[in-house]
Amino acid sequence: MVPGFLSPSLSRLGLWASGLILILGFLKLISLLLRRQKLARAMENFPGPPTHWLFGHALEIQQTGSLDKVVSWAHQFPYAHPLWFGQFIGFLNIYEPDYAKAVYSRGDPKAADVYDFFLQWIGKGLLVLEGPKWFQHRKLLTPGFHYDVLKPYVAVFAESTSDMLDKWEEKAREDKSFDIFSDVGHMALDSLMKCTFGKGDSGLGQRDNSYYLAVSDLTMLMQQRMESFQYHNDFIYWLTPHGRRFLRACQVAHDHTDQVIRERKAALQDEKEQRKIQNRRHLDFLDILLGARDGDGIKLSDADLRAEVDTFMFEGHDTTTSGISWFLYCMARYPEHQQRCRDEAREILGDRDSFQWDDLSKMTYLTMCIKESMRLYPPVPQVYRQLSKPVTFVDGRSLPAGSLVSLHIYALHRNSAAWPDPEVFDPLRFSPENASGRHPFAFMPFSAGPRNCIGQQFAMVELKVAIALILLRFQVTADPTRPHLFSSHIILKPKNGLYLNLKKLPEW
Ligand code: HEM
């Protein structure tokens, strides 16, 4: 109980505190309103779909089929239109090659309103860094994707894919469709852990399995958070069961990364261990990061190392999972292209039983099919920037510095001015003759310009190896009783799994 003589001062304190909260709330509201006014004024020359007084376009965006909704808006409003997530976050949504070029050929920073959701887990790694530090990291990390480093990964991808295919043989015996997306996800994460931490030779231990589960959980929770407006505020989110689960998974992921870095650093001090690392069949990504030095001999700090490893684990597995899975979906729908890819893979392999690095460049039809499936189903459907300086577009309209821009890759890839009959699956769009005259910013699955995907070669190698091996072992057909629905935003994923029928092919 509070003694009587204290109660007047306590209640005064309470009054002061409530007053302060009210004033702070009021100031925050004013700053949000001013921001809204500034963003709205910047986009006043761009007509767009009507907005809800409170949610903006958020309700439409949250609904199933929102990606196709944006495609229909793109028909109505050529080049670009405003897109409001609630009342205070408004992007100019663009989907036209010249518009994309005007912004994405420059190195403007990422829009904090979106990318700050990633910080708790991946920290300030390459994906969210900007300015000179981004430039320094990009230079330090680029050698990690040199083809000499990627070459041995062919065997790593083949090993993880074969494990998955053995499991699929059992599932296929049941003679009914099953969700391939989650299995491909496991396979891609398994490969990435081998390439990042070098777990290929010894297999995954208990600690790695916890990490593996934490990473799967984090990507799922992050996607869910982006889609749920009530979770956008940090303070509210950390108080919810989902927010607390996210923090716990972050802790597991960070502890794992820190420990692997510590152990690897200790091993590098030991001559015997050093020899073992040198004799390993491939350098893993951590070896490259630990050895990276800039022109002045400066290396990455421990915090930077962790951020880069975590960024790679985030960017590197869900994206390839999406790429491989939607490709299989396309093959199931278009069996004639599936058969051509299979024939090509068989011819390249001949009587050998594993693919080599040099085989990959011979997979020309398969590569065209991969590109066509990434056109229709881009694994990263939308990317966001905040302009550091004004931009003027081809039609003379402009945006001032500070404006938010969203590149809608999904709608850009269905822009009928660049892609006649955009809904038709036609790999020949990517034949050298047909591709030569195309606008360089019409096809951007890996984004473009200085902030393009650093992992695109890695991804293409993984996609080719995994897909060729899958098609050699199985015939895939669609399950018409399970139509796909997108759950999107960060990575293009199916809402309720991606169900396909798989039939084991006879040995040829
Ligand atoms: C099919 C697979 C992939 C697709 C479609 C893809 C797509 C993209 C896109 C669109 C961006 C630009 C993001 C933005 O502007 O916000 C990006 C950036 C990035 N990607 Fe990928 N990615 C894939 C695979 C990978 C892999 C395998 C890795 C690493 C192992 C990776 C690492 C990164 C990193 C670090 C960035 C940031 C680069 C920078 O800003 O300098 N990605 N990716």
Automatic annotation (TrEMBL):
The lineage of its organism: Eukaryota, Metazoa, Chordata, Craniata, Vertebrata. Belongs to the cytochrome P450 family. The chain crosses the membrane at residues 13-34. PROSITE patterns: CYTOCHROME_P450. It comes from Microcebus murinus. Its main location: endoplasmic reticulum. This is Cytochrome P450 family 4 subfamily B member 1. One of its GO terms (cellular component) is endoplasmic reticulum membrane. Heme binds at C453. One of its GO terms (molecular function) is heme binding. Its cofactor is heme. It is found in: Endoplasmic reticulum membrane; Microsome membrane. Keywords: Endoplasmic reticulum, Heme, Iron, Membrane, Metal-binding, Microsome, Monooxygenase, Oxidoreductase, Transmembrane, Transmembrane helix. PANTHER family: CYTOCHROME P450 4B1, CYTOCHROME P450 FAMILY 4. SUPFAM superfamilies: Cytochrome P450 (SSF48264).
